[in-house]
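Dear colleague,

As promised, here are the two records you asked about, laid out in our usual form so they can be pasted straight into your sheet.

NAME FIELD: protein one
SEQUENCE, THEN STRUCTURE:
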Amino acid sequence: MIDAQTLTPAELNQLGLVIAERLAKQPLLVDSVDLAPLLSVSVETVKRYTAKGQIPCVRIGRRVLYQPEAVIDALAQASSNERGDADE
């Protein structure tokens, strides 16, 4: 355990930067209300895509959460697959 009282201001600043960097690397999880505007769709559309398995989600108890980057990647992949199928 680190005793914050024994750290210099420079060490505290460095520790803060390390913590901030680690937190920034953590995946952000949002609910359907927060995801919908990111995708420019309604909450109902997010729920429909979830029910159909078209977008990935994380279930924690009764909560359904989404990692926006993973959802966007899944939708982009599905879109490119559809375009690829149409060309054949």
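NAME FIELD: protein two
SEQUENCE, THEN STRUCTURE:
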Amino acid sequence: MNKSIFFKLLASYIGLLIVAITIIGSMQVYLVENYLIKSKEQEMVVRGQELSNMVMPYLMSNLNPRPVILNVNRADRILGTEVWVIDRFGKVITASADHLYCEGNTLEAMDLTQLQSGKVSIKSGQSEYFQEAVIRVVTPVIHDNEFIGGVILYSPVRGVNDTSKNMSKIYVGAALLGILISVLIGIIFSRQITKPIKRVCEITRNIADGKFDERVEIQSKDELGVLALSINHMSKQLSELESMRRNFVANVSHELRSPLTSIQGYIDALLQGKGKDKQEEKNYLQIVQKETHRLSRLVNDLLEISRFDSQTALFNMDDFPLRSIIDRAMKSLRLQTAAKDLIITTNLPSDLTLCYGDEDRIEQVIYNLLDNAIRYSSDGGEILISAIPYDNDILVEITDFGQGIPSEDIPFIWDRFYRVDKARSRNEGGTGLGLAIVKEIIDRHGGQVMVESTPGEGSNFGFTLKQYGNEIDA
């Protein structure tokens, strides 16, 4: 991974650099060549105007300006320029010694028309009179607003090309040096990027192997820094989940072991004939039955928790009367209530509106909270169930007057398998999952759970439900 990303980054960086240098270099060479040619043309125009003034007296007197032109040619050829002279008809009347055969030739009609209007004619390219590309500038000779002839200047483009080539060589050398320096910078830059990515890969592999204590140390505030924070957060969350998983497995194993051990012990006793009489054997079977029921409740609660965790728990949302499900929960727990001689009092307004939610799930909530209140109430005590409007919700409260909950335990009572009095809970048959299921169900309904408790005076558990007409998506 490291080599792949490193070389991809480096190759991309160098490729873009070469493309950029090539484009910029080509544009610079083109612009410089164009500038040099334009400068040369302007220089020749000025020179042509000077020569036009020199040959004007000869053309006015119909004299051959050869002596002047030969002198001029000798001087200008040192500079790479040749000078010819034409008459009013565009015919060459004087040329350099190397091009005397051109005397008598005539300019093209288009060029002649341009000169007759007083304009300078400028052309660049190959010429039939020279073996290379040249710049040709023809300057008109005007006297009393009348065209009487012109001066032709030829200059090879070779000088411009040589300058351009020299500049290109310098530019290529500078570009190669720049590329070399840029490659070194690119290597350093690519390593700075790939090194933390490599570290991120190592950390993620360790996380995949179950090592959640390692952290990515990237201090930058760019995307890599955000990635590092995300991975560290994920590692922390996975560590917490792993701890919860281990605790969950340990708790489940412990909770299953207790009833299974009890069931196994009493069945062994029955098989070995240790029951002294039919009544004792019946007691053994009742204990086995009780533990079996407890085991069944634990398995059902575990399945319910599993559905919540896997997001497969189904909710059938609709309106329903709260009073009816409270009555059903009270009837389901009638035996437990009678066994402890408890009195359950309901305080429900006669005009209580319908609730919105999953009726069976809310009945399970009330059942769990009422069962919890019965279990922790003293014999002959009282339990109060009330419901009142609460903003757009309905607040349901179940109050007992039993042993209460210490303040340090209250933040944890909604956790799975958490028990305030572990020994008492097991003896009474609790699974330690009832309140956790209550919170999961109410959370899915968009409500809140709450508890207030004073040790020795009792506890008040409450939850909120949406009133009918204030529905939420489950």
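A couple of things worth noting about protein two: The chain has three domains: 5-162, 213-227+234-313, 318-466. The two ends are 44 Å apart (CA to CA).

Best,
R.
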